[in-house]
Amino acid sequence: MKRQIYFLTIGLFISNFLLGQTPKIKVVLIGTFHFGATTDAKSTKFPDLFSKNRQLQLDTIAQKISMLQPNKIFVENDPSQQNKLDNLFELYKVQGLTDTIKYRSETFQLGFRMAKKANLKKVYAVDYPMELPFSELKEAQQSIASIPQDSLKKIIQNFPTFFQQRKPFDESKYPKLPSSTLRDYYLFINSKTYRHDLMYDYLQQPMTFKYFSNSVGIKYTSIWYERNLNIFNNILLHLSKEDKTIVILFGAAHTAVLRQYFENHPLFEIVELDDVLK
Question: Residue 84: which domain range?
């Protein structure tokens, strides 16, 4: 951890030295879903991705982003994949990618599309994979589930009042992808409401595990913040004094945290996606 903080400090120093104090770099955060290309439990299905209508919607979004003339686009891929991404992007530019099952993720369908329209030479892989303690969480959840209901109610009643509150979001009212345009769906998953909903799962619910004599919730949140801090650092290390606008295409749960880092850094200015896609 000390080593990571050290390199982050160096990265911040370098960015300040290269960029100076003005002007600020404009940051377009695009919180995304993964187009059904992952095995995540909550993966959003996207069966009509390759329909004419959806491809046109992607073109429209990419065109609006490219009009900002971004200098760099950062995507949720491991840096070890950079050479592979570079080669695939060269194929993409000449319409040489045909494996639609393997290359259906947002990196290829939206990241590459934006980069081509913006005449960029590459997209930057800046992810920093870290394992969250899902097994420990599952064990804790099973332990809680084994508590008799009467005893469980008494434990919850002894929570501080703040932690007795129910989740203040009605997800049943959220727009669904099948009946939404991609523009509207992206605007929602990048909205303040959805961002707060995502962060509730990392900042409120995990804390309640503490009241069952288990600190796995705090560990879970800490690792999530550490991972995104490393992603933030990876982005900084790619910046130069020529950069005026950057685009970050990551899962929406990542951008909810990354936004905090960029908002609190004096050399960046967030560009709201609403303003870009209006």
Answer: 23-126+168-203+238-278
> Is residue 227 a part of any domain in this protein?
no
| Separation of alpha carbons 254 and 32, rounded Å | 9
pLDDT digits (tens, 9 = 90+) for 108-160: 999 999 999 999 999 999 999 999 888 887 787 787 778 888 887 877 777 76
Instruction: Tell me if 121 is assigned to some domain.
Output: yes
pTM for this predicted structure: 0.85
Quick: pLDDT tens for 238-255: 999 999 999 999 999 999
The reply to whether 33 falls in a domain is: yes
Amino acid identity of residue 93, one-letter, is K
- Residues making up the chain, counted from first to last: 278
Give the Cβ contact number of residue 64 at 10 Å.
16
| Strand-pair category, 72-75 with 268-271 | unpaired
The total domain count for the chain is 1
140 contacts: CB under 8 Å, gap ≥ 6: 209, 212, 214, 216, 217
Q: Taking a C-beta distance cutoff of 8 angstroms, is the pair 252, 33 a contact?
A: yes
